[in-house]
């Protein structure tokens, strides 16, 4: 971490509960909780509701711990970027060392408690997820390579595998496919954001693809990854976690996603700047719904199965 983040000082007594909660990246945590819950409920083995609740809670705490460690390390660049300048550390509400202590403590707590509540396979996956996000992505990839989002996206893709492992004690084709769905979705999702937030990343010195290779190359990469994502997402519907509900949702969403990616690919900078990147922002919004609705469809299939309506 650079000297800028180390020198960021919090004002004594200024931080409130909301500041500490924001340190855990609640919006990211909500995605972690949702996809982990879907992985748990879609698994072929049932879990006692209390164990399921505790497991998802500890997974959420682990996700929050990752967020705290990320904010501790990235305080210097968060201070530069408009999108992140109001976060607890750069705004001076939480001391960096306090954030570090919270992140480490919650990480250990979450992993140990998940192991005791569920099993150590799930706990091991959670531990690796925290390590991957905090160390491999945040401390290494993010500032080193324009492929930061491609490789680092794995960190956000593990929660459904962890949820599946809570129920089954292992890994399967279905849990890997849920992992791959998030993994392949992450690059076009974040690159769309980077298209209209390029100046922020450039000023902060983050080697996002838009900064290192330009927007034209980024648009092409969005299209390529979207083309690769579509058959993977639709193919997941042919497995035990899929069914007619999932397949219908996936076909429609991927058609819309491909159409959006083609529109972005055809754009030039004059057109994009003229309408303030409206197409890119629209694609980014669609990408949020894309992931939520895919996992919502998996959850719907799991809910319908006891009545003989879900699955094939």
Automatic annotation (TrEMBL):
- Report membrane topology: Multi-pass membrane protein
- Which is a GO BP term held by this UniProt record? heme O biosynthetic process
* Catalysed reactions, as listed in the record: heme b + (2E,6E)-farnesyl diphosphate + H2O = Fe(II)-heme o + diphosphate
Provide the GO MF annotations for this entry. Answer: protoheme IX farnesyltransferase activity
Where on the tree of life does the source sit, at the highest rank? Bacteria
Q: What InterPro entries does the entry give? A: Protohaem_IX_farnesylTrfase, UbiA_prenyltransferase, UbiA_prenylTrfase_CS, UbiA_sf
Q: Sorted alphabetically, which keywords does the UniProt record give?
A: Cell membrane, Heme biosynthesis, Membrane, Transferase, Transmembrane, Transmembrane helix
Q: Tell me the compartments it is located in.
A: Cell membrane
Q: What else is known?
A: Carbon 2 of the heme B porphyrin ring is defined according to the Fischer nomenclature.
Q: How does it assemble?
A: Interacts with CtaA.
User: What is the protein name for this chain?
Assistant: Protoheme IX farnesyltransferase
What species does this protein belong to? Thalassovita mangrovi
């Amino acid at each position: 971490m650079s000297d800028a983040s180390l020198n960021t000082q919090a004002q004594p007594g200024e931080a409130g509960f909301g500041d500490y909660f924001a340190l855990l990246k609640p919006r990211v945590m909500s995605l972690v909780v949702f996809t982990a819950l879907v992985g748990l409920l879609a698994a072929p083995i049932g879990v006692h509701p209390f164990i399921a609740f505790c497991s998802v809670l500890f997974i959420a705490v682990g996700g929050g711990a990752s967020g705290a460690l990320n904010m501790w390390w990235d305080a210097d660049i968060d201070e530069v970027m408009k999108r992140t300048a109001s976060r607890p550390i750069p705004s001076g509400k939480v001391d960096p060392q306090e954030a570090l202590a919270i992140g480490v403590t919650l990480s250990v707590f979450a992993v140990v408690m998940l192991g005791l509540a569920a099993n150590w396979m799930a706990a091991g996956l959670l531990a690796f997820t925290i390590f991957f996000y905090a160390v491999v992505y945040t401390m290494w990839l993010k500032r080193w390579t324009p492929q930061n989002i491609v490789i680092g996206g794995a960190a956000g893709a593990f929660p459904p595998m962890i949820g599946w492992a809570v129920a089954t004690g292992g890994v399967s084709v279905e849990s890997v496919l849920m992992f791959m769905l998030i993994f392949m979705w992450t690059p076009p999702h974040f690159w769309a954001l980077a298209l209209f937030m390029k100046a922020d990343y450039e000023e902060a010195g983050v080697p996002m693809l838009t900064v290192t290779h330009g927007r034209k190359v980024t648009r092409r990469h969005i299209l390529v990854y979207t083309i690769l994502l579509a058959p993977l997402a639709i193919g997941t519907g042919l497995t035990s976690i899929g069914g007619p509900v999932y397949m219908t949702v996936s076909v429609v969403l991927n058609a819309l996603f491909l159409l959006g990616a083609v529109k972005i690919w055809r754009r030039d900078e004059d057109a994009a700047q003229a309408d303030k990147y409206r197409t890119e922002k629209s694609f980014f919004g669609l990408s949020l719904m894309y992931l939520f609705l895919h996992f919502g469809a998996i959850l719907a299939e799991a809910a319908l199965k006891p009545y003989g309506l879900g699955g094939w």
